[in-house]
Every structure is written in structure tokens, then in C-alpha cells.
Amino acid sequence: MFKQIRRGAKRPIKRAGRLIRLMRALLQQPQLSQLLERCRRQDSRAWAQLVDQYRMLVYSVARRHGLNSEDAEDVFVSTFEILLKSLDRIETPEALPKWLAVTAGRESLRLRRLSQRYPEIDSSTLPLEEIIENEEQRADAIAISALRSKQVRSALERIDPRCRELLRKLYFEESTSYSDISAELGMPVGAIGPTRARCLEKLRSNLAREDFFEE
User: Fold this and answer.
1) Of 95, 113, 148, at which residue does a domain stop?
2) Is the pLDDT of residue 24 over 70?
3) DSSP string, the chain
4) Domain-located, residue 60
5) Which of 60, 74, 97, 148 is deepest in the core (most CB within 10 A)?
């Protein structure tokens, strides 16, 4: 019984830790739908983020087609050039990983056919379907993450305004120092930590009622 009590007492701390990690992830990784929309508006920073997020996928497809590093770089460039011209054709954000895998696969095969460095191969033996399947699973994970992000934001709206503003400044605004928060909210620096803990507990309680922490 005592062991069960101890385990139960640790759960809020563990859950609060998971919640903090998720909130930080929301700050560090913009949702794919927002990133795509910014790219369509020719936002160069968003485009750089998108390329960086999926560069390893495109390279892995090219390398698994047997291309050397130089030719894999050519596939990388051509694939993202095609994407830049095709952004309006990506109907849902979750479709992007599969689209990139298929496009990189086609570009890899095209380069193999044009190059004299590679022997003829049977494209049906290449593991492109396996790569696509893995990326579709990753896309599913992105969709789930977006849903959970929406739950957190919704739960934030249901706590008192002072707590909501504090948590937003701590986790959703970049490079906000305790001294800045103190000045903006009229809260002593020494009170920010304890207040944050109470506010996170309120947020955690809201999310628990929605089964957010269910495994």
C-alpha cells in the first residue's frame, strides 16, 4: 500500500514534466500546417526550417537507391526545387513526407538512368515502399502531436488569466527572462517559480479531465 501511495504521489510531477516538455516542443517546432502556409507566402525562414526538417528523409531515399553522396545532393536539390513549385498541390500537411519520399525516389531513378556510373537495376527491388511506410507513420505522429498541442492550448484558455499569461510568457514566447516577466506582470521574481508550479497544476488538472495523460 505504501509503495502505491508513493508511486501515486510521483505522478503529478512526472505528468508536469511531460507537459513542460510538450509546451517547449510547441515553441521549438512550429506545426507543419503553419510552416507550409508560411512557405506558400514565400517566407524564406519557414522554407529553411522545412528543408532542414526533411533533409534526412530525402537523402535517405537517394542513398538507399545506391547513389553516391554527390548524386544524393543532386536529388536533394531537385526534390526541393520540385516541392517549391508544387506547394499548392500538397492538400494536407500529413501528405508531405510521402510526397517527398515518392518524389525523391523518382528523381533517384531518373538520375540512375541518365548516369553511366550505375548498373541497370530493377526498381521494384528498391525499398521505397518501406521508406514511405516509415514516413507515413511519422506523419501520423505529427498529426497526433498537433492534436495534443491543440488540447494544451484549449486547456490554457480555461485557466485564470494571470496563470495563462505567465505560462504563455514562459513557454510560448522566445527569450523571455524572469526579470521581463516580473516587470510585465508586476510579479516578484522570487514568486515566479512557485506561481508557475501552481499554474502548471491547474493546467494539468484541466488536461487530466480530458484523458490527456492516458497511455
Assistant:
1) 148
2) no
3) -HHHHHHHHHHHHHHHHHHHHHHHHHHHS--HHHHHHHHHTT-HHHHHHHHHHHHHHHHHHHHHTT--HHHHHHHHHHHHHHHHHHGGG--SGGGHHHHHHHHHHHHHHHHHHH-SSS----GGGSTHHHHHHHHHHHHHHHHHHHHHHHHHHHHHHTS-HHHHHHHHHHHTSTT--HHHHHHHHT--HHHHHHHHHHHHHHHHHHHHTTTTT--
4) yes
5) 97
Q: For residues 149-168, give the mean pLDDT.
A: 85
Q: Is the residue at 16 inside a domain?
A: no
Q: Is 15 within a domain?
A: no
The range of the structural domain enclosing residue 196 comes to 158-215
Tell me whether residue 17 is in a domain.
no
> Does 60 share its domain with 97?
yes
Our count of domains for the chain comes to 2
pLDDT given for residue 57 in this prediction: 86
> pLDDT (tens digit, 9 = 90+) per residue, 63-100?
888 888 889 999 999 999 999 999 998 887 778 888 89
Q: For residues 93 and 37, state if they share a domain.
A: yes
The residue with greater pLDDT, 20 or 205, is 205
